[in-house]
User: What shape does this take?
Amino acid sequence: MKSVIFFLLFCFMSVSVWAQESMYDEGVDTEITKEDISEDLLLWAQNTALKLKDAKVRLREIEQAEKREFLLSVIRESVQEAQDFPQLLLMRFTLNRALTLADIFQDHDESMVVNLVLMPAVNQAIALYENADLPFLEEGLKDVPDTAFKPPAYAAFTKANITYLLTLSNVHRSFVGQFEILKNAVVWVAKDMKRSSATNRNPVNANLILDLKNLYTEHENIQPEEISYVINNKFRKMLLKVYEKMKVEANAADIPSFMIYFTPKSRDSFSQASSEKVPRQDSQPSLWQRWVKALNQPPIAKDYSQTQLVGATLSTGAGVLVPKDTQDQEPTQPYAMIGMDVVRYQNPETGTDAYFVRGDWRYGEGEFIREKIKIAGARWVDDESGFGVFANIVDFERDNLRNIERNSIGNLGVALHYEPFENKNIALDVNAYWSPMESENNLQLNHFNLGNASDSWKENMKLKEQEHYDQETESIRASQENADFLVRERGATIYRQGDGRDIVTPAGWRQGYGFPILTEGDRTTLGGNTQLSEKEFSAFTVDADLTMRGQFSTKDFKLGLGTTVSQMQFDDYDGRYPAVHSDQFKNQLRLQNYHAQFELRLTDETRTYKRYGSDRIYINNFDKKPINFGPVFVLSYELEDNGLGRNMANYYNPDFAKTLPEATEVWQAYIKWNW
Assistant: This one.
């Protein structure tokens, strides 16, 4: 099977669309052998390295406006001198590709091309000569068997440059220029991997090469006016996929990327600075240079940016509630908290999230002061468009301090996931959904007790209760008189059921069927001592969260900022309740909450995917990356609007409503674990 893959791969990679026909051709598509090494090739490499070093020194004396053309002429001359040597030295790749990139940036600022394309290429070419090409050439000229000869690390070389090429594509001003950079990058990466010894009998690299080839062929004849950021992002995602999954040579040194502004002096390490004198810098790197360097870093490949399926998450910690802007200020209230997720799937790269149960509880002063539970929720987002759907079956909240209890069922809406940068460390997630009122008590607010009602409301309630009592008395009397009439005049019989209830059965009816006879035990009341209100509502809600991910040393961190806005529409109260203070109540209400959260992973305990035997499987089959199970420290802040609780209380007691907080600040610190 592997032989078939590589035969097809060779055929695909040999078509003319990938071929080059100029003196700048990078050479044949097969890896270099010991027989290809010659003294002339070694001499060219040595002369080119000296010429490039000399150019760096002379560049300091050249006017800024002439530096670009000077470096281009030196690089062109070096490549022209090598036109009779088709061998694939890494330094020649760097110089060839620098000329292509410089041509794509020809309408950009002179200094930008010099600093972001030409000088990085010159420095990398020198570094590759000293630490990769020269050792390779010297080994090839020795009298060693072919089996001991190790070709250049083509795959390691191309992997080192992928992030730089992605960054450079973001720097270009036009979509067409970005596309040209990405298109060339796809060809270069595919050819480098094909030449690499790491690809031999390796299905991972082989499949990646085929993916690159298919992507290139799909857009080979695209017209400039058809190029957009969507197409460019397809190329970027493919290159990132290759970066994450490709295999490199086992003997590969630490190949530097284009973004190396010095020449190493040691073959053993690329981390040592060059012994050449570098002009002293009078100032710190510019904001532009720092931004380019930051974007050139590889994406975070840990827990916060990878797909994962977790069986359970437990959070424990403490917090404090701070009521704001109240007439009768309540004291700050500390509490203990516990949070829980049961079966949760997350893909931060696409914004997809699903859970079976989510909940958190706050316990303080001998009671649970808040409970929040969500059951069976999910948001699915299409990877290409960034749009998707949001659904939540049950959403329950009870809060003693804010005096509310809310149940909503069947929330449904749309979702959005947007990543402004290719490094995937910043993402915006938005849910916009509707909570409909479909049936009686399906959605309700019922957290107000009779003891908090005003005296006037209670007096009116007594009148309502008396009126209700009189109506039920009349119903009981009428039911009993009707039963007596049916027995006396129509031959009906009385049948007593097992529960003690009497049924009047008209003549000719089957025994046990008929009309129940009402008694004093059938009386009801309009209201009890607790949960008086069952006010149905519907709401349109928008949740927005901006998440930023990064690293402190080897520890992941995540910062989230967000807001929730709900526009709520209430139905009238049941007519059985008095409406003494209805003028204080709003049928429409807008709620807005804000929140911020910082997470820091405390350890790097990882558990990897196991395929065989009795080992436990910790991650799904799709990406097989390790999950980071180390504990996470979380610090969060919320500003919770209390317009809802105050509005509900206004219906019963406006004076009592004034004692409730208009908003509550909530500070929490806790640790969470995954299983």
About this structure: The mean pLDDT is 77. The radius of gyration is 37 Å.
